[in-house]
Amino acid sequence: MTRSPLLELTDISVAFAQKAGWFGDGRGTIYALAHVSLTLDAGETLALVGESGSGKTTLGHVIAGLRSPDAGAVMLRGRPIDKAARRDIQLIFQDPFSALDPRMTVAALVEEPLRIQQVGSSKERRAKVARLIDKVGLPQDALNRYPHEFSGGQRQRIAIARALAPDPILIVADEPLSALDASVQSGIVNLLRQFQRQRGLSYLFISHDLGVVNHLADRVAVLYLGRLVEIASTARLFKQPAHPYTAALLDAVPRIRRGGRRATANLNGEMPNPLAPPSGCAFHPRCPRAADICRKEIPVLAPVNGEATQLAACHFAGAA
Ligand code: SF4
Fold it and tell me: What is the pTM of this model?
């Protein structure tokens, strides 16, 4: 019997109506996500990368239940996600300060998700909150203080404690390090890894920092203009990217390349207007390998050289 993955997304599409035209008097549709399918296993960290506007955050919101897809299915442990399953998925945001209500004490903030879900007695909840505060490395006197009394790194620790309170099995972390100084980022990364080891947690880790992704993720999914263009194990993707867009992203940070073939040149030009995406492969106006077929046909995600651990959507993926 085959085991179903922890999380399975099938053919997810999300569209936004948008004003269009010179005077904003027309209407257009932006496909923030188009036909995205992927899986995430228990205990796995899957990173989502891509430029701003690639659809990373929208996909995170779909998984966390903040937004319903216009098409496609989200399954958790082989079942559609219902209200009860929502607490199994928690979010950590980029900016812990805006994510934490400044009028609430740390104790009230961490307890809130438990209180809303009516988990345990008040005494049990308070005991759990105290344990969590300890586990994220904050002193017990933090419980009666307010978010503004803490540094950015400490606030992210409070946000992590709050996310862990309902005992989730999956955490969607949307750029959780990007508002923090480099000196405190490693402490947060170590904390996330520690909880993953202890609890078997899975992470969907949205990041623009490929150095951190290389360090933290088991697999990496690359989005471009709402489409999944490559997904592979971290080791394989960093060593031998199959999609020219992935290669260009990696070439922008050469210190993290670990040898192997350099697939293409640097990333040129801007992300296209999502209201009028390019025909065929949406990356073709920026791709140094673009050929006629790229302007006509959308490439499908397929194994690269028969390798099941690396899929890419490029007409020439795997070609020397
Ligand atoms: Fe470049 Fe063509 Fe591949 Fe798109 S399909 S990434 S344009 S080579």
Answer: 0.90
